[in-house]
Amino acid sequence: DGGITQSPKYLFRKEGQNVTLSCEQNLNHDAMYWYRQDPGQGLRLIYYSQIVNDFQKGDIAEGYSVSREKKESFPLTVTSAQKNPTAFYLCASSILPGQGAHEQYFGPGTRLTVT
Amino acid sequence: AQTVTQSQPEMSVQEAETVTLSCTYDTSESDYYLFWYKQPPSRQMILVIRQEAYKQQNATENRFSVNFQKAAKSFSLKISDSQLGDAAMYFCAAAMDSNYQLIWGAGTKLIIKP
Questions:
Q1: Contact A22, A107 (CB under 8 A)
Q2: What is the pLDDT of residues B28-60, one digit of tens each?
């Protein structure tokens, strides 16, 4: 089945440690996105990528880093510089925007808790 | 600034009845796209319905329909014959810039009373 997988579902880390969240898609989508979701707020864009080896910062990129070495994969690293990393993280993908906006397909998310 | 506002943090409706969720947005663009997404307790985000701003006809998907008022910058979602499975957070989102990045509202929690 086509879709987006994120792993793990729950992740616990100690403060000061970097942690990498996985996102893989087999939908053959060019564009991929990382969002952060906090209670009572809408999704906020962290990073997005429209092509391999290229990515752009979203609204809240500070303290995060990404890579896009393969079309199917877009891992997110939450660094120790991120002041408040505990949150729910959603990965999404879509057909390349440019001829209109397209539906974004979402993974099941990763709940990160940092103590 | 481009914004999306959902003014109802929570709504409740009796099973089988109709409910309308509100969404307003602010943009100076003429070409944009509007979406309603559903996030059930599983937290999997699912597209409910989509509307292109250049289309005057309101989008409909089975029991879900929108009331798109372009001049008022309003995009409400109507759910008819509400079912228990409709209970979820509903997010309004808009792609309003040249990159078509989505801007999200804060969400409305929909409760279905049996």
A1: no
A2: 888 889 999 999 998 999 999 999 998 889 999
Min Cα separation B97/chain A (Å): 10
The encoded tokens of residue B66 equal: 């929108």
C-alpha–C-alpha distance, residues A28 and A100, integer Å: 18
- Cβ(A32)–Cβ(A25) below 8 Å: yes
Work out the minimum CA distance from A81 to partner chain B, whole angstroms.
Answer: 25
**Confidence check: pLDDT of A102 > 90:** no
C-beta atoms of A100 and B52 within 8 A: yes
Q: A59-97: per-residue pLDDT in tens?
A: 999 999 999 999 999 999 999 888 899 999 999 999 887
Interface A-B: count of C-beta contacts within 8 A = 52
Sort out which chain A residues have CB atoms less than 8 A from B101's CB and list them: 45, 48, 58, 97
Nearest chain A residue to B33 by CA distance is: A101
The closest alpha carbon to B29, from B54, B6, B51, belongs to B54
Instruction: Quote the pLDDT of residue A85.
Output: 94
Closest residue in A to B10 (Cα) is A40
CB of A100 within 8 A of CB of A31? no
